[in-house]
Amino acid sequence: EWAIAMKVGGENSGQALVWPKPKAPEWFARWMAVPAAARLEADWVRQAVSLGTHRDAARLLASVDAMVARAERMAAHGTVPAAAMADLRATRRRMATASDTAARQALWLAARRCLRAAVMAHHGLAAERLVFVKQFAAHTVRNITRSYPWKHKPGGDIFVLAGLKPDAGAEAVLKGRPGPGYVWGLDLWWDADRVVFAYASLPQWPPPVNTAHYLTEGNNVYKLRQEIEPLHIWEAPLDGSAPRQLTRHRYWSDFEPTYCASGDIVFASDRCGRSAQCGQESYDHANPNLYIMSPDGSRVRRLTDNKDIDRYPHSLDDGRIAYTHWEYQERHFMEVHAIWTVRPDGTMSDALFKHHMRAPCGLRDTRSIPGTGRLVSIATGHHTFAYGPVVIADPQQGTNAEAGIEILTPGVRVQEGKMAGTPSAGGGVADRGGLYHTPWALSDRCFLVSYAYARPRCPAPGGVDSNGFGIYLIDTYGNKELVTRDPLLSCVFPIPLRRRVRPPIPADVVSPGQQAAVCYVTDVCDGMPEVPRGTVKYIRVAQHVGWPLDDVRGAMHYIPGVAGQRHLGFRSWSPVRVLGDVPVEGDGSASFLVPSDTAVYFQALDARHMEVRRMRSMVSFKAGETRGCRGCHESEARAPAQAAAPMALRKPPRAPTPPPWGAQRLLGYEWLVQPILDRRCVRCHDGQQPKTPFDLRATRAPDGLLRSYHTLLGSVPGSKKRGRALVSCSDRFSNASVSKPLEFGSHKSPFILALLDALHQKEARLSDAEWLSLVTWVDANAPYHDAFYNKRRPDGGKPKRDVVPKLPVVTVDRGR
Prior knowledge:
Blueprint: H1 2-11, H2 26-32, H3 36-50, H4 57-77, H5 82-96, H6 101-122, E1 130-135, E2 157-161, E3 170-172, E4 181-188, E5 194-201, H7 214-219, H8 221-227, E6 232-237, E7 244-245, E8 254-259, E9 265-275, E10 286-293, E11 300-302, E12 309-315, E13 321-326, E14 337-342, E15 350-353, E16 362-368, E17 375-380, E18 390-393, E19 405-407, E20 422-423, E21 435-441, E22 446-452, E23 470-475, E24 480-484, E25 490-496, E26 516-521, E27 538-544, E28 549-550, E29 554-555, E30 576-583, E31 590-595, E32 601-605, E33 611-614, E34 626-629, H9 669-672, H10 674-680, H11 707-713, H12 750-755, H13 758-763, H14 768-779, E35 788-790, E36 800-803
Parallel strand pairs: 19-20, 26-34
Antiparallel strand pairs: 1-2, 1-25, 2-3, 4-5, 5-6, 6-7, 8-9, 9-10, 10-11, 12-13, 13-14, 14-15, 16-17, 17-18, 18-19, 21-22, 22-23, 23-24, 26-31, 27-30, 27-32, 28-29, 32-33, 35-36
């Protein structure tokens, strides 16, 4: 049975629908007709074979010993039927005296039947019903940026499973009414009477190009998006009534919906018009953010602002929305896929767990564990789908505490990168490979999951792995029991069909009539004990600007070519603009305005406007939101210590004072820095004088960059040799950790420090505006380009870096 499943799954792993086929051979019909009870037993055999237990008498006996131990642990925490326990122990005794391997195999299967009865009774699941999705396994490249309607072949439905026993019937919900296509994402209303989901309508299949190959798909995304209808959000009653479509955008895909307690629906969407900051110049992949709409779909508003990806939203038991927040911002691009939360009105968007941890790369598909502050999630790689080990995340252990990760399935390796955390007590679920998907916590000890067994790489284009997911019950004792498996389709998104307590409905504090939010810091020195009080005089407000994407020009990249290259001009993966500086009061406090729905970051500056500490992340605010923090820190959740009202809060919040070049202009090396070098530095540093060897001229290097930029970055044009870098950067190959005071930027840059010595004070004689330009540029990670690359110009001309987005600013103090 398993061998046939691997054959059929492998041959179906491309975009072509190989199985079922007309005039299918007799073995295929027999395999499809295997009874549910036999398929359950076959699954137990799969587990034994995958662990290498099936042909070793000693391992078979040890496996039953482990079953007895798990049952005893269950009995210590609740009810286990006495008959099941007695039968299990009796089976173990018979097994100890069995004469051959075949006899022990039969007894091992008998032990599994006893254990299953004990597991189902212990967790009280006799009457449990499920709603879940059947779909073909994904055939596209397993990358988080692949959120497209052609990800799966058309087929499947939403099903209601009558029980958790092998022969329970499953009834379809949609019954083909939305037309050919498939379901992506599922959530159940609190009264368990309706579901919300995304649907890909695919009346014409297959697509005109091979979407199973990463190059073919990537190079044709622009074409495919013009020809294939995007994903839309739908809702369906579970009483058999007709489903209704809620979103209808002609170009942007809406997917992964979740209900809010108010009835509003949060979903991921690429309608934010952001391009993925990875891949190749020929790609047009999109980065989704989160949106929210009214129950009937009539009003859609943006919920989060991220230049990269916000995905996998799920309502938590306290009413917040948990989601995966992925960012490329001055830290290692593979390590920052953290759990964030946001209120349904878009306020209080912030990191909850793993924001500064290197491993695992990401946590996705995060949901509440009832009655606890903990979460169940999937540990993933960077480029992958939300497949991997099942973990329990406990933010109460600390926002970035490895002790907060309990691994329920330690036998499953994370697909990319390293794993962190500790296996569950007793060792967790025994697996040897495979992948988990879409977890749901039934209790603090019992979970529904989707699981696919490991298989060799199949010969499909692109080497896509494919072996259909089945729905399983796993628990903290280490048990793993099949709930349902379709021989041809994956079974995913399992949700218990039961009424749940609706979360509280947070008050909406957003003020649509305003264009700004208020930020305040009670004491910028809090979090920097090594920095003398009074050092920080200003806070700089800046923004890393995301790559744009639209339906006319496609993706407008900052990095042309291959994004993984270490091209000197791409130390950072996005351009920077500075909104301005705000003063810090004598007690270390500050209060200021920032534009709403704009992902900004902050830098603490000294009296010379030199960076003391930088924020290597981002945060956005909603219009009218007022939000503060203790001081200059990251990923901490403690209230301010002082009792007295901070000085800055006794005054109206200030608008940032824009730099001399304006708050809407992106920093560019050639117009901001090189003219200053020409005026003040080149007469001594022209590369021709032995005593001043640095070449700061505006001549072109072979890569098109100015030689002066090579000099400042420690590069020798046309050579792999590296000299001494004269500016300090934190780029996309840095780690995920919290930055330290004076770790990067102008205070760590020999170029800036040299300008402060007596010789250069006399010879260079920088104006205040010139000094501010240089230190701001260095603190912004020394960007070179100030525009995006347009590969589809309206005049049909050659690609050119000429796209400069219009960006919001705050120009007037509130209250004045």
